Structure formats: structure tokens, C-alpha cells
Amino acid sequence: MELLIGTRKWSSWSLRPWLALKRTGAAFTETLIPLRQENNQTYEAIRPVSRSGLVPALKEGDLVVWDSLAICEHLAERFPAAKLWPDDAVARAMGRSAAAEMHSGFQALRQECPMALDIDPRHAELSQAAFKNVTRITELWNDLLGRFGGPFLLGEWSIADAFYAPVASRFRTYGIKPEGAAGRYVDTILGTRDFLEWEAAAKSEA
Ligand SMILES: N[C@@H](CCC(=O)N[C@@H](CS)C(=O)NCC(=O)O)C(=O)O
Predict the structure, then answer these.
(1) The whole model's pTM is what?
(2) What was the pLDDT predicted at 206?
């Protein structure tokens, strides 16, 4: 299997399926496409593999799965023993709702606080829309952590955590400190072995 990823320090969408793929224990190669190149070069570099022109994309033989959420769902089906989603249908439905809410939302936070693993923590003056995103994420995390007992959103690590790992990194970078268990969750997610591996690689990128 081959995972096409973008520049690690910026590519929050690439980080998500990379974390899920690491959890499966499967062997895979990473192909890094530098983002923010001039003259449409990023798009041109991705298009031969994924017609969307966006990373991430997972290549498995003739199959190409594009889009972070689709890749994670594919991995959950392909590697059931890895339990990327929990067995319990209620927990699974809530985890999927949380991942989908991230995948399709929180635009203001994403725009105002882009993932940047190479910069020092700083204060961000949030707009009302971004503040509402932070409030909702904090509420969601505290609800799931309370319901399932932590340390991850559904108890054990799941795709929902892959989806919120870049959010945790944004919170740390921009000095956003969520209240309650959500605050501890930021440290938990950013302290996982796999996230630390990605972060170290991101920091050593040109
Ligand atoms: N909805 C897509 C979003 C993918 C996306 O926006 N990827 C960005 C990088 S994080 C990209 O490929 N940008 C192309 C560019 O910067 O030229 C997904 O979830 O995979």
C-alpha cells in the first residue's frame, strides 16, 4: 500500500489516515507531495495518482481511495482486527458523527488556525465563528470523554481521534485551552507514539 501525503507540518488531512494506517500495523510506503508549490505543481504531481488533485490518497494495487474519511473507512473494513472503530454500534455511530462533523465543518477554526507543526505557540485572536467552533469541539470532546470514560474519545483509540488530532495540535499552537477533560485530551492525543513520530518527521522537513 502507498499513502500519498502532503507536507507534514501543514497537511492535517494527510495526518488523519496516516494515523489510522499506522494503527493497522500494515506495511506501507509514503509518497510526499510538497504543498504550496508554484505554478500548479502540487496539483500536477497528485493528478497522475488521484484525479481529485488533493492529498491524501491511498493506493492499493489498482484501487485508489481519495479523501481522508473514505481512506479511514476503507482501512477499518480492510483491517477489522485493528478495531479502528469500536464493536459497539452506538459508540461507532457517535464516533462517525464526530469524525464527519470535523470532516465537513469547523471552517472558521481551520482557516484562522491552520495546522503548523513547525511554529512556536502563539496567541490567536479568534473571530466569533472560530470561537463557536472551539466551544462546540470542547463540548463534543467533554461529552464523549465523559460517556466513554477516556482516555480517547470512544475509550479506546479510534478514527474519531485521528480526525481530532490536528485540532488538538491547532489548540496547542494557538494557545486554546479547552476546559475539563477536553484539556487533558489535547495532551493525550499529542503524546501518542504515532503523533510524535509524524511531528518529528514534520519538523525535519525542508
Ligand atoms: N476533503 C479532502 C480534503 C483534502 C485537501 O484539502 N487536501 C489538501 C492538503 S491538506 C490539498 O491536497 N491541497 C492541495 C494544494 O495545496 O495544492 C480530504 O478529506 O481528503
Answers:
(1) 0.98
(2) 78
